[in-house]
Amino acid sequence: MSVRVAVTGLGCVSALGQGVQANWSKLKDGVTGIRRLSEPHPDQPRLIKDGPAAAIDGVDTTAVEAFAGRKVTAQLDPVAAYAVVATHEALTAAGLIGDAATLASTFIVYGGASGGNATMEEGYTRILLKGQSSVHPLTIPKTMSSAAVSQLSMIFGIKGVAFAISSACSSSAHAISEAAYMIRAGRTKVAIAGGCDASLNYGSWYSWLALQAMATDTCRPFSIDRKGMVLGEGAASLVLEDYDHARARGATIYAEIIGAGGSSDAGHLTAPSVEGASAAVRAAYAESGIPTDTPVLVSAHGTGTPLNDKTETEVMRGILTGGLDRHRVIATKSAHGHLLGAGGAIEFLLGVLALREGVAPPILGYIGPDPECDLPLALGKTEAFEADALVSNSFAFGGLNSVLIAKRG
Amino acid sequence: MSVSQDSILDVIAEESLVERSALTPDATLESLGIQSLDIISIVFALEDKFGIVLEQSEFEGVTTVKQLVDIIEVKANAVAEAGAAGAEPAAKA
Asked: Is residue A136 annotated as part of the catalytic site, yes or no?
């Protein structure tokens, strides 16, 4: 493909903090955003969110309000608020905030595993728990899967093609790959890609509990005695841009997306497939043109569930060549939790920063090797690691896989 | 305890995202950028706050801030007085 795709803006919010710098510095320092919740439902005390989670305690929307000139975020569901602050940061970093001419043709492709869960839960609480007869008039526009996309368009004046992509925990990785393809196809010069999720409401909590996928202690990717995932929340936004367009306007190029690969397992609703995931990784490598012995930093899906990490190990051991030690595997969910529909984007974003700085931030919660997870893991403290490329994996429930490969800009 | 116009205006400002200082009595809802769906959201919040019920026919002709506040004030104070007298408030909720 002749059109190259640059990453020219980054923004994120998670339990690690608001902003790329806050997230990156805590990740490098080995600080986790995971803490134990013990929150009874205010109207039904027998319901308790009790366990580890990576929750956000609120976002600072001052900069967004100052830009918009009015209180545009006050009524947003958390999922949209996260998307808005992350995108404000990304557009600012790209030097495009308020650039009406460019934003008039900018696309938005944004992932989410669900919509406004807090608003949905509030509505159900009113009618089913409290016996009230009405819900907020904006319940539909706040809970629809594309709610955040509409807010991004309205608040920042983005007028190109805009829609949401939903593929569970691969949503935002798929969004990035599809946005990159749109730029390669010449459909747009600039696209906002990423994802958001806010699923720490009671309904989601109990649903994940029922699935028996949640850890009771913490997230320990690729470790012995790992017990499962830890729910997080947040958003990550990237500005993708035609490389020549970015160069011509003197934009900072954080990375170049050189490959994307996707596949579907056509298998089990929750169990991962070595064959399916491998197909996505191989497709991304094929598109990137880099050989599999190129030293890479792998930003693993790394959920911390027994089966995912074992499967991902088998996948990567089957693909990486030239000796495993020339590669390094990071798993940032151990710090920011599982951001579900935003996971692929924040893990790619943090991988880009690691690639640029030539470091590998440590996997947290690790208590010992599992023979079934024998990978070159980044453990202990942040170490220097010069990779030639980043491979970012997302393997979602339902067997929907998306893998991104990038190199330094 | 009676319901003050100030407390009504506080709810309108919070729900409409209009600066509290802009909610002058004669200001029209249209001039404040408050559209029909916004009015429904405001009424929803006022119903919740003051335990009142407004039918759409009661506010569909409202064009100014004062008209809306007056309607709510009468309704809310009726509910507050009924509550003070020990009666059940006529809350929709």
From this structure: no
- Do A107 and A162 meet the contact criterion of CB atoms below 8 Å apart? yes
| CB < 8 Å to A72, chain B | 17
In this prediction, residues A26-48 reach a mean pLDDT of: 96
Q: How big is chain B, counted in residues? A: 93
pLDDT digits (tens, 9 = 90+) for A264-323: 999 988 889 999 999 999 999 999 999 999 999 999 999 999 999 999 999 999 999 999
SS3 B23: coil
Please state, rounded to an integer, the average pLDDT across all residues of chain A: 97
**Look-up of token digits 């134990």:** A36
| DSSP 3-state of A3 | coil
Asked about A301 being catalytic, the answer comes back as yes
A321 touches chain B (CB under 8 A): no
Rounded average pLDDT over A320-338 = 98
Q: How far apart are CA A368 and CA B56, in angstroms?
A: 65
Instruction: Determine whether A336 is an active site residue.
Output: no
Q: Report A:247-286 residues touching B (Cβ under 8 A).
A: none
Q: 3-state SS of chain B: helix, strand, coil percent to 5?
A: 60, 0, 40
| Environment class of A124 (CB within 10 Å of its CB; exposed 0-12, middle 13-18, buried 19+) | middle
Of A68, A76, A70, A72, residue with least CA distance to A97: A68
- Whether the Cβ atoms of residue A298 and residue A373 lie closer than 8 Å to each other: no
Interhelix angle for A20-29 vs A343-357, to 10°?
70
Q: Given A12, A169, A219, A373, which residue is catalytic?
A: A169
| Residue linked to tokens 């996707």 | A262
In whole angstroms, what is the distance from residue A375 CA to residue A324 CA?
7
**A197 torsion bin: left (phi>0), alpha (psi -120 to 50), beta (else):** beta
Residues of B in contact with A137 (CB under 8 A): 37, 40-41, 44
Partner residue opposite A75 with nearest CB, options B17, B40, B92: B17
Write the single-letter amino acid at A209.
L
The Cα-based distances of B25 to A119, A349, B35 in angstroms read 32, 50, 17
User: Can you tell me the distance from the alpha carbon of A395 to that of A220, in angstroms, rounded to the nearest whole number?
Assistant: 17
Contact (CB<8Å) B40/A72: no
Q: Are A109 and A180 within 8 A, CB to CB? A: no
Ranges of residues in chain B whose predicted pLDDT is under 50: 89-93
Q: How far is CA A66 from the centre of its chain?
A: 27
Residues of A in contact with B15 (CB under 8 A): 75
